[in-house]
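Consider one such protein record:
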Amino acid sequence: MAGLDAITLSVIQAALQQACDEMDLTFSRAAFSPVIAEANDRSDGIYSAVDGSLIAQGSQGLPVFVGVMQYSTMTVIEMIADGRCLPPQPGDIYIVNDPYLGGTHLMDVRFAMPVYRNGAIFCWLSNTGHWPDIGGAVPGGFSASATAVEQEGLRLPPVKLFKKGKLDPEIYAIICSNIRVADQRIGDIKAQAAALMVGQDRLFEILDRYGDDTVIEAIAELRARAASQMRANIRTVEDGTYCSKAYVDSDGVVDEPLTIALAIEKRGDTLTFDFSGSSKPCAGPMNSVLATTLSSVYLAMRHIFPDVPISAGAFEPLVVKRPEGTFLDAKYPRPVSGCAAEVSQRIAEAVFAAMVQALPDKVTAAPAGSSGNFALGGSDPGRGRDYVMYQISGGGYGGNIGHDGLTNGCSTIGISKSPPVEIMEQAFPVLYRHYALREGSGGAGRQRGGFGLAYEVELLRGQARASFVMDHGRFGPQGVLGGDDGAVNSVTVFRNGEAHVPPHLSKEQDIPLKAGDRVRVATPGGGGYGDPFRREPQAVLRDVSLGYYTPEEVAGKFGVAISEDGSKVDLEATARLRRAGNRAI
């Protein structure tokens, strides 16, 4: 590190991070759609001009986009080099959402902009935003029964949406002609572009202050240190092979579960991930493209080793064998709308279930692992306009060695949050009749899982179509080391007063609704960690006093007897319950 002292290195690292954070903030504050402006379903980063590798990403961006934008930027660079894309000029911004070109699903739209210094590209800035609609068979893009990607929406290869800083009206017209509520997209498009411009301004300030050569040296050193730090963490794992399985409810077309079979081999300072035993490519939209599969592994390891800085270097010791011939390596024209929001979280769950065997003090039981994708599209007669509402929801996190799981946490793959009820009711013709913690949904354990969310939304006027692509409706989030699974996801639609449960439990599309119809959703709780009969009785008493469980429930789940007035633990009865369960008090 000749000529670069530790303090300067730390300051440049923080400055790059701050530039990405400002891009994130700009994007959310300027966007029109609640899914971006309120839920923060977006991410921004800085990427290498040579190979698109990650340099820095915003701390409040979705972790699943960490690896995805790296591969997407790399693909843009490769396509420019071999003539499949027009060469860039200053002020150009490429748009791309093709899942097979380093992406996720079609609704995640990526912008990529070259940053020039002294006539050459210094780096790329890229961001991703979840657009509430991208066309396709159903409003919102989550077509639960799609059998080809064309049914999911408009697919864009890398094309220049902005040329020398000006929006290309022809490309923009093509986009607007293929999506719903097109008049509202201009706000999100300009917000996405503005975020990149803010990032460029901040990057120039860093380069002007420290010099291009110093910043280049710092970026290389930060990458090397991230790799070294990840390798040091991996060396704490005992050599061996750790296996696990996770399950997707169904693909939305064939009502059979899909299996993610994982074997992690640890040798020295490297982890090798093998998914070759997983299910074959599926008919419905629960296939995962390679970039999403890789990114899912990376984000899972970030959960386990959060101290490692976000950089391409952190991924170098993680070797993922290409899962060819499985649903985790989708090829055109396989549908993929569920890959980023749902399958990615099953992949992370498989990583947790394997790694908890090696690192029980660092890894949690399975989290809720579903983004709760609920799209509602229709026409609002009160306002005389069409709309597409997209609702994401949280769930419980798994317990760990020292704590109960987080209640109503965000999805495993992101830091996005549920849009506020008040915002949704202002923007769309709906009323939330119920929005509360889902008591009892956490898996029992020495450290119990966190609780999910329960909500019910009513359509107030007009007609609409509802679609769901969720998961964990058949299998609850896995408990570990003797802990119980969390509660499963539940969806019920009330039409004309009659209850309808989707045949695939967590997936269905195009359910017609009229004013007065309601949708009720209960999200999963996290898995339990450790033997439930070893949970401290006073902790169980506190759960009962807060209304999380009833006295009858804790007797069976935790082997704890609560006095008739609910004020204390009956120790003698508790001892009998635990002896009867062949477990120690």
